[in-house]
Every structure is written in structure tokens, then in C-alpha cells.
Amino acid sequence: MIPSSPIKTLQTENGCFHYQDEGIGQALLLIHGSLCDWRYWRWQLPELAKHCRVIVPSLPHYWPYENTQTGFSVYQHARDMHHLLDALNIESAHVLGHSRGGSIAIQMALKHANKVRSLILADPGIRTRQQENHANFKHEALLAIQEGNIDEGLALFIDAVSGPNTWKRMVRWFRQMVRDNASTLVLQQNEPAFYFDDTAFSGLTLPVTLLGGSDSPAPFPAIISRLENILPQAQSHFITPASHGMNLALPHEFNRIVITHVERHQLK
Questions:
Q1: Is the model's pTM score more than 0.90?
Q2: Helix, strand, or coil here: 14?
């Protein structure tokens, strides 16, 4: 894919990472999830940039950044996003996080509240202690990758979060992106867990939109349901028919919801 704008780089305490910056107006930061990078948002950047300023980073450790063995956690990546907004002289931004990126977005709102105008959480990957067994697929996927069975391991991971046989149906560019980020599963396996914290989360008073896929597998529907109970101000939307990769399955509907959210919660 040829990017619609030049890829830029930023040096932080956690290394160098790459991002795109396109459009003007309200700032919107898009945070990708596991095994992804800025390419994940290929169907969002051009359309959303017509309505606001869109910042699309590859998190440190993800393609095309050379992998390291330090500084990989939801907490560090939230700090990295804070540094990115600072470096771009953005006072505050709407923050959209998908899957693991949803945890990063919430951590930003908890610890860097002045930088977060609102949250859009798409199937956020927040762990609960009751769902620990569901995370076993990550270990199995990692073992397959370490044994050299890369596509087998990636298929285990992708199918677990998106539904059976999703990997087989994925287009070539998506598979390549996931392969390029396969090594991050080693770091993700060892990162400190980001658990649900009802008390801390209930203290968030900023606007929140929750996005789910109608066919997203466990634990995502339960996560959204729990967030609905904790965050009475949250508005929920379920994109049909779509699973975890809802922004790829139905990009125009996904983008419409995001644009409506940003316009409704403009900075005054």
C-alpha cells in the first residue's frame, strides 16, 4: 500500500517509532492492537482526514521499528502516545483504541487525562481475572511461532480474537502485516497485565463511544457490557455483520460512527 502521506518518525525514551499525520482540525489518535501497525487503518485514514487531523502511529516495537526487549507494556505505550501528542503540539485529542489499543487508550485517559478529549473503544482488549483461561491461546500461538510454524501460530491468534477460519479469509496485505509483527507476541506474552479496574474506570467522566462487532467472539461482548455498566455516559454501537476487525469489514459504517463522535464532542 502506498501511504497517503509521508511516514514520519519520532524519537522517545522508548525508542523510535513511525506515524502518519494527515488532515486538519480536531485531533484524532488511532491506536492499533496486537500484531498490527499503522497499516491497519488503511481504510480509515483517507476518509477520517477529510473531517479532522488524524494521527496514525505504529507503536514502538511494531513494524517498521526494529524490535527490542524492553519497554513493552500498555503503560509504556500510553506514555509513548502522550509523548507523541506533546511532540506534535497537540493539547488534547480524541483517542480511538482497537483491541489491545483500547487498553492503551484507557490508560492514557487515566494517567494523562489532559491529553484525552474523548475515547472511542473498539472491542477493547481489557483482561479480567475471570477470563485468564481465554488468554491461553496467546501462549499456544507463541509456541508455534517459536517452533518456526509462524503462520500456524498467527492463525491460532487471529482466529481466537476474530472467529474460526478468519486467517484463511484474510487478504494478502493483512497477512503480511501480521507476519511483520509476529515477534511482538514474545514481548506481549511477558508484559504486565492490564486488568479491569471498576473503581478507576468509573472515575472517567469524559465522552466514550463503545464499538463492537456483531460477531465478535468472547471475551469482547462481555467487556463492552461491563464497560456499559461502569460508564453510564458511554454510547454503544454494534456493527453488523462484522467481527473483531470491524473497521476492515465495514469501513464506511465504522468511519461514520467515528466522525459522528468527533463532531459531537468537538473542542470548544
A1: yes
A2: coil
